[in-house]
């Protein structure tokens, strides 16, 4: 399932939840369960993002760029879903009227630590991806400069008679 469909699915789930909650007050436990569920979803999508980057990191050294647009599109879609989930978490947090229990606090802390670890790994991946792309770009620039130098060298070895004969034929 691609990111845009996942985002639509999450939005539908939110609409259903709002309809179910209409007319009755959401309990503190229900809000915390929702926050934990959203954090779990966020970790899930960060893991997807990480896996997608890992796949691309394997392809770059092999000069496999045929799906680079799809790669960037999928990344954008996953980031859209993650941002949507973050907004949902903020919305749920704003509806809390008291602090979480120690057990809930520990569960949230663990999920946030996992999230932070994925974010750290993803940043590391992005630096590696950028580094690999920069290496390839530098290699291409060198190759183009070599071709230009070769053309210049060959140009110097052309005889003036060649140009004179060419002018006479034209």
Q: What does it look like?
A:
The protein is mainly α. The protein has one domain (3-131). The chain has helices at 3-21, 28-59, 68-94, 102-156, 160-169. Helix 1 (3-21) packs parallel to helix 3 (68-94). The model has no long low-confidence stretch (mean pLDDT 82).
Query: Portion of residues in helices?
Result: over 70%
| Alpha plus pi helix count | 5
Shape: elongated
Pick out the low-confidence regions.
none
Radius of gyration: 28 Å
Q: Describe the main β-sheet briefly.
A: none
Termini distance?
Answer: 63 Å
Number of domains: 1
Mean pLDDT: 82
Q: Report the count of strand segments.
A: 0
Q: How much of the sequence is in beta strands? A: under 5%
SS class? mainly alpha
Q: What order do the helices and strands follow?
A: HHHHH
Quick synopsis:
The chain is 84% helix and 0% strand. The protein has 170 residues and is mostly helical.
């Amino acid at each position: 399932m691609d990111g845009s469909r996942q985002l639509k699915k999450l939005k539908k789930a939110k609409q259903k939840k709002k309809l179910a909650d209409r007319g009755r007050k959401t309990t503190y436990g229900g809000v915390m369960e929702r926050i934990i569920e959203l954090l779990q979803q966020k970790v899930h999508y960060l893991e997807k993002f990480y896996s997608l980057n890992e796949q691309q990191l394997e392809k770059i050294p092999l000069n496999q760029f045929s799906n680079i647009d799809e790669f960037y599109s999928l990344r954008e879609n996953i980031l859209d879903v993650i941002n949507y989930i973050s907004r949902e978490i903020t919305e749920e947090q704003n509806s809390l009227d008291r602090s979480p229990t120690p057990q809930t606090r520990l569960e949230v802390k663990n999920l946030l630590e996992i999230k932070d670890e994925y974010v750290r790994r993803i940043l590391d991946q992005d630096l590696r991806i950028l580094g690999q792309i920069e290496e390839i770009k530098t290699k291409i620039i060198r190759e183009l400069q070599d071709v230009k130098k070769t053309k210049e060298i060959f140009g110097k070895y052309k005889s003036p008679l060649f140009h004179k004969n060419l002018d006479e034929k034209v």
